[in-house]
Amino acid sequence: MIDLQNKAPKLLVIGDFIIDQYLWGSCERISPEAPVQIVNVDNENTLLGGAGNVVNNLKALGAKVDVISVVGDCKNSEALKGLLDDIGVDTQYLVTQKNRITSKKSRIIASQQQVVRYDLESTEEIDTKSQNHILDIFKKIVKNYDGILLSDYGKGVLTNKLIKSLINTSSKYNKKVLVDPKGLDYTKYKGAYLLTPNIKEASEATKINIKDNESLTKAIIQIKTECELDVSIITLSEQGIAIYDNNLRTHPTVTREVFDVTGAGDTILAALGFALACEYEIDDAVEFSNLAAGVVVGKIGSSTATLNEIIEYESSLNKSSSDEHIKTLNEITVLSKELKARGKKIVFTNGCFDLLHAGHVRYLETAKSFGDVLIVGLNSDQSVSTLKGNNRPINTELDRAYILAALEVVDYVVIFDEDTPYNLIKAIKPKTLVKGGDYKDKKVAGQDIVDELKLVQFVDDKSTSQIIQKIQQ
Q1: CATH number of 324-472
Q2: What is the pLDDT of residue 207?
Q3: What's the fold here for domain 10-316?
Q4: Distance between CA atoms of 47 and 86, rounded to whole angstroms?
Q5: Which residues are catalytic?
């Protein structure tokens, strides 16, 4: 995968922001008042939807995000601002229009089955005053961003006139505009960098029944030509993503198991915007967005994909390189918090692992069996020399780290300089610490931090020292 870690592009999202409310409960009887179910609600959660889900995805990837939209003078608007504040997104560019209602979609779910959905919203186009206000804001700040994303949910914010003005202004500053389109007339997005319609939307907009490569080619070229796009894209669900600039090519999907496609389009728009803002080529950006979508559809409900989840997912598909599993202290600290938030049990062990042998591998396999994720602390060259003498290590720390990271059983490797990994363990806070059986009745560094200590017996007649001695003989 292209290296997008430690990248933080600044992106601007403009569009229809929606509140998604879920009321969860159970149903055991029918109402005496009417032939409808009575749902006893025992849990409720509220999420950002629409353009807000694009923002959620960008924040999960590590982008800096600002938003522009129109909200009403209503309780829904205050709730929306609260949700944006919760994820660290400034709401200063939200324009308030009187007598308008910010979209809120409420779903009542009983025993995992949606019973009913009711919407409270305004869907008419925003007035001219609001459009002008948005454009005035945009002209002042557009130069500050690495990319512009338009998330059109057909709720009236992105009027034809406003879209045209936003794209024309962006072109003056050489800013790419990516659009998740709505409706049948895509010419309103003329001049954008790319659109992200799915195969059904593209078929309806072009009036071409996309059923084979010939019809796909015809439709994707038509969209590119009519909308004067730099790149034309059509998402093909389980078949991947088709791209056309000078020629047609399809990046196949990398989804293993689909639980819910909700929000996958938002994820693709966000991932494409993120990668392109980091100045990566379109094919690399599409490959990255495919991976991100693969993570999201494996979850239930509108979801996001972090860079670490994408790397982990790519690794599970045997497409990642070993060096992607070698982390710095800061990276592993953030990653550990994320893993624990996802309910993963982290196992930690450490060592020099100078000349890797079968004893090492069996030891690591046993360590991994105690949890879900195995993190290996690797003594640096300086640390090994202090512990083993000036003639060690045989292999450099980077060589040793790379070989360890290539093992299927090892999830992450972190190099440390100290004689003990105490500070590293303190940063990771694993559930389980694993050491060799020779530490029985001895004090183990980091034992006071973890939930449990496991001692694993070494394999007889398997050691680095013996291998070195044999080579010398």
Answers
A1: 3.40.50.620
A2: 95
A3: UDP-N-acetylmuramoyl-L-alanine:D-glutamate ligase (3.40.1190)
A4: 11
A5: 266
